[in-house]
Design brief:
The structure is a homodimer. The first copy, chain A, is mostly helical and about 190 residues long. Chain A has a domain at about 55-185: Orthogonal Bundle (Tetracycline Repressor, domain 2). Chain A is built from nine helices and no strands. In chain A, helix 5 runs parallel beside helix 8 (about 145-165) and helix 6 (about 100-105) crosses helix 7. The relative contact order of chain A is 0.12. The first copy, chain A, binds a DNA duplex (18 and 18 nucleotides) through helix 3.
Chain lengths: ~190, ~190
DNA sequence: GTCTATACGAGGATAGAC
DNA sequence: GTCTATCCTCGTATAGAC
């Protein structure tokens, strides 16, 4: 995949994370990349293919980021904090998680894109579950529920926090408050 | 507001709750209502007005439902259960909360619709907060956080649960598991 | 690889007859 | 109130020149 293709995906990603799948167009991309919209079809044959590749790249990058979080920090509690900060970062540009916003449009997504979205949630939940299990065994975290359930609740909550934060005037602080509580709910009470 | 207008809103509501704002069209409505799409403009001058009225009606109906929950049940814990079941019901037709799905498209909504969405969340959070306060004072509920924070976390979580449930093969049971944990997290442990 | 030109359909909206 | 007819814009996609 060449440079232009990457650039197209970069721009598309920002667009989708802001507006969603149905509301981004080749014209939008063309404007920001500086090529004509017909030229996009040289790199991606269709909107479906473009979005499929976008989700694929996003999933891989996200997994990489999670691995970095593991490496850079041995404390599960700090890892969790970093995980939450990823979502907070997106929000600072009023962007949702790519797969979170796509999930809202599930009914109109091409099947191949739906698949990628599903896979993203499964992967992320698995990572969270492992993190919680580790944290529980070392005492860094004190999950009140089985790690699997705790993970799915956490994932739902962070996605929901991002979702409704966009409907708030002060979206970042709205998210922060919720994120703090999520963290508190799973940390040992001194 | 006459019968046809109501019917248009009924159909529009199902469409939006499934596909979102950008992906529903006058053609879709016209097909299901059985009138031509130009005729819709007699009842609603524009898509913006239609959606604005839709959100307005949804908000009022939702508030009514919440009042009914209060009346039909004096136990805050049971009220909370009923609140969660509202979201579960939508999901059974793979529908999200109208304002939840609109929130994902916030960036492309007309300003007047954005306003309605914001108001919906504020109202709903207030109701939850009052419920939690009542429950805490009678001992029916045992919030771990200040009621206001507990309410916003709960709202975010239930919206998020609905959002990501759509990306799950078994969306209803995925939601149920999360809803049970939400309930457990706020109920007194015997 | 990128361009121009163009096809084709969909979407929202308006005018005017009935 | 609903219809037909029509307008205009935007969206994806293709063909073929450079």
């Amino acid at each position: 995949m060449n440079e232009t293709a990457q650039q197209i995906l970069d721009v598309a990603q920002n667009l989708v994370r802001n507006r969603g799948y149905s509301s981004f167009s080749f014209a939008d991309i063309s404007e920001q990349v500086g090529i004509r919209k017909a030229s996009i079809h040289y790199h991606f044959s269709s909107k479906e293919e473009l979005t499929r590749e976008l989700v694929k790249r996003y999933r891989m990058a996200f997994q990489q980021t999670l691995k970095q979080i593991e490496r850079s920090n041995s404390d599960p509690q700090a890892q969790l904090r970093q995980f939450l900060s990823l979502y907070r970062q997106g929000l600072s540009q009023s962007q949702m998680c790519l797969c979170g916003i796509l999930s809202a449009e599930m009914a109109v997504l091409p099947a191949s894109v739906q698949e990628g979205v599903r896979a993203f949630f499964a992967e992320t939940q698995t990572w969270l579950q492992t993190l919680i299990e580790t944290g529980a065994s070392t005492g860094c975290l004190q999950p009140r529920l089985p790690p699997k359930d705790e993970a799915s609740l956490l994932l739902a909550s962070v996605q929901g926090a991002q979702l409704i934060a966009r409907a708030s005037e002060a979206s970042e602080s709205a998210f922060d408050r919720i994120a703090d509580q999520l963290l508190a709910s799973i940390c040992p009470t001194p």
